[in-house]
Amino acid sequence: MSSNATPSNTTPSRAKPPTAARPGTTPPNGSAAGAAGGPADASPDVPESTPAPVIPSASGPGAPLGVPANVPAGVPGEAGVPAGAGVPAEAVTPLIRGIAVLRRLTAADGSSSLSGLERATGLARSTVDRITATLARMGYVRLDGRDAVLTPRLMELGNAYLAALRLPRLLGALADALADELDESVSLAVGDRDGVRFIHQATRRRAMSLSFRIGDRLPAERTAPGPLFASEWNEEEWTHWRRRRAADPEDRGFPAVPARSRPYAEESDGPYAEEAGRSYPADDGGRRAEGGASGTVPPSQLPTVGDDFEERVAEAGRLGWASDDQLIEPGLVAISMPVRAGGRIACVVNVVSHTSRHSAADLRETLLPRLRTAVAAMERELTAERATPLPDHAGRAAPGRPAPSGLADWTSASKHELGREFVESLARGLTVITAFGEGRAELTLTAVAQATGLARATARRALITLEHLGYVTTRDRVFRLTPRVLGLGYPPLSRTTLPEIAAPHLTELSQRLHDSVSLAVLTGDEIQYTGRVSTSRVMSVNITVGTRLPAYATALGRVILADLPEGQVPLSPELNPLTPRTITDPEHLRAELDRVRKAGYALVEGELEQGLRSIAVPVRDRGGRVVAAVNVAMHSTRRTAESCVRDVLPDLHATATRIEEDLRIAGCFRQVPLN
After folding, report:
1. Quick one: pLDDT at residue 406?
2. Taking the mean position of all CA atoms in its chain, how far away is CA 403?
3. Closest to 405 measured CA to CA, from 360, 453, 464, 458
4. Does 173 score more than 70 pLDDT?
5. Among 669, 160, 163, 169, residue whose Cα is nearest residue 382
6. Are the C-beta atoms of residues 297 and 278 closer than 8 Å to each other?
7. Would you place residue 295 in the very low, low, confident or very high pLDDT band (cuts 50, 70, 90)?
8. Are 337 and 375 in contact (CB under 8 A)?
9. pLDDT score for 561
10. Torsion of CA 553, 555, 560, 564, to 10 degrees
11. Strand, helix or coil at 335?
């Protein structure tokens, strides 16, 4: 139901300024022509006018788990703040513009040309160049020629929210177990103003995938979780929902769902299909079309998706569960139940299926009892949880960039190095988000300043701006992140695979060394190539993605095998000699694996094919387990073994480290597919 953002094959070095950024001509205060108040800030999330109720956490009454944002109407333009926009005087305009660029990249599924960003945001090209240059310096964007591509490192913003929320960590395993039991996709959702946003996914890998992405936002009226959250809305929130429905009847502001420009009745199926063309008696209560045929209701006057939302909310409040019978699109059905903490809804568990597997009625009869059992277990988990600080899961430290406490010095150094190409206030404002995390769900202004190393005045302006945009909420001088933070790149990046993460790093290494570079994983007793960058030499190593080779005879295989516990190494009793140099004695091979484990790399010469030399290092996940390997392969006449260790190995280790850093961030709250 969604496509992935695929990394391109080129990337600038993180240690150097991005070369694709052009010198800007826009003054730092953004007084040049061009309006950010156009498409750039036409939010896919309709602005709020009133704050939503606080959801108490499991660790104590009144401690919020997640609060929808309070977003004033109106947005600032590039040349200043238009009349009536409601933008605070102390708002940081470059931060507003930078977030507008990130949101447009998110809406474009993670990649856009710089000229496309210029058109979509209404910003001057020089401003777009400076923003993307700054984001590239932070590691949030990769500049590939004239394109800007979101990188996994941007997920540290959403990870900060998810870590502070705690719900994915506490309930994720239970949701995964429910998905395994039901053999259906299971999601956890939180309320986000008049919509819902997913914070955890346990998907079934089928040809017809029914899952949304983590961070996707859906209109409340077209989902199963929506009526449950709406059962706790106050009248002001209902007023806002009605205003949004009137302003956006086609749901164009929710790119994660198909837009509805007409009722379901105009389609071949769906819950209202049977109403199309139906005739009614003269006393049809006003349903007859003006000037139309007697008693015939045209599709334009039939019920549209969500028209019965208030009735569904009342029913959900009475029953304690809600369903979605093809409200998002024909064929999709779902059932949801709330998980409560302190008497309020903390999140909603959503089970999604397809009408080819379950009807809506069958979903209720078959799955609801097991869903109730799972929800009860989740509520027990929340009740038992204690708010003790845990290791940070936000994955905030980036290569060449310090933890937030050293941010002020890093941004100053970057500004000194890049000059006008680096927008310091944008970098500082975004990193304020990463001050939050596990054990830091609520922070005072002083705590934010201390965590980032920023002056209180600088931190205060950043927080004011983020609150205005809906990414931070405050109560009693305490700040909290909102679910809207997940809208900054998380949906397209939440489907990123390890090969996609590795691709730009492999390309960079290949371009530096002028040799073939590969990524592989272990499949049984073989390695499978999942990433590959070849050189254009007359004589080069010719292997394609998907190729499988015996693990015991390759450098890639040996660094992965060396990490396996003794007794779990998949070795055949008889190892075939692929060349005269292939190690075939099991004891000799075990000794070689021990050496590889201690050295941290494998060097194989002529064992897979005569004349082929390969050096490989492991790629580890967040837990330190080797999940893949990266190698550089060449003909033996190109480099000696000593030269490989001296000249290639340091760059190879550095590349693996960068892949691991991105993998740790991308894998904080999801399982990153290895192929």
Report:
1. 67
2. 21
3. 453
4. yes
5. 169
6. yes
7. very low
8. yes
9. 96
10. 50
11. strand
* Dist. CA 509–CA 167, nearest whole Å: 38
Residue 498 carries which DSSP code?
A: H
Going by C-beta distance under 8 Å and a sequence separation of 6 or more, which residues neighbour residue 376? none
d(CA 337, CA 128): 44
Q: Give me 633's structure tokens.
A: 């392969």
**Contact of 154 with 118, CB cutoff 8 Å:** no
Burial level of 60, CB count in 10 A (0-12/13-18/19+)?
Answer: exposed
- Quick check: helix, strand or coil at residue 58? coil
Residue 56 has pLDDT above 80, yes or no: no
What are the distances in angstroms from CA 669 to CA 86, 140, 203, 208, 399? 36, 18, 14, 24, 21
The beta-strand segments (E) located in 458-562 are 472-475, 478-481, 516-523, 526-533, 548-550
pLDDT in tens, 183-222: 999 999 999 999 999 999 988 765 445 567 999 999 999 9
Phi first, then psi: what are they for 113, rounded to 5°?
-70, 155
User: What do you get for the CA distance between the two ends of the chain, in Å?
Assistant: 20
**Statement: residue 270 has pLDDT above 60:** no
Q: Please, are residues 209 and 1 in contact by the beta-carbon 8 Å criterion?
A: yes
Find how far residue 181's CA is from the centre of its chain. Answer: 26
| Residue 387: per-residue pLDDT | 46
* CA separation for the pair 161, 54 (Å, rounded): 16
**Which residues are bridge partners to 340 per DSSP?**
345
Measured in degrees and rounded to the nearest 5, phi and psi for residue 659 equal -65, -45
Q: What angle do CA 263, 350, 245 make, to 5 degrees?
A: 35
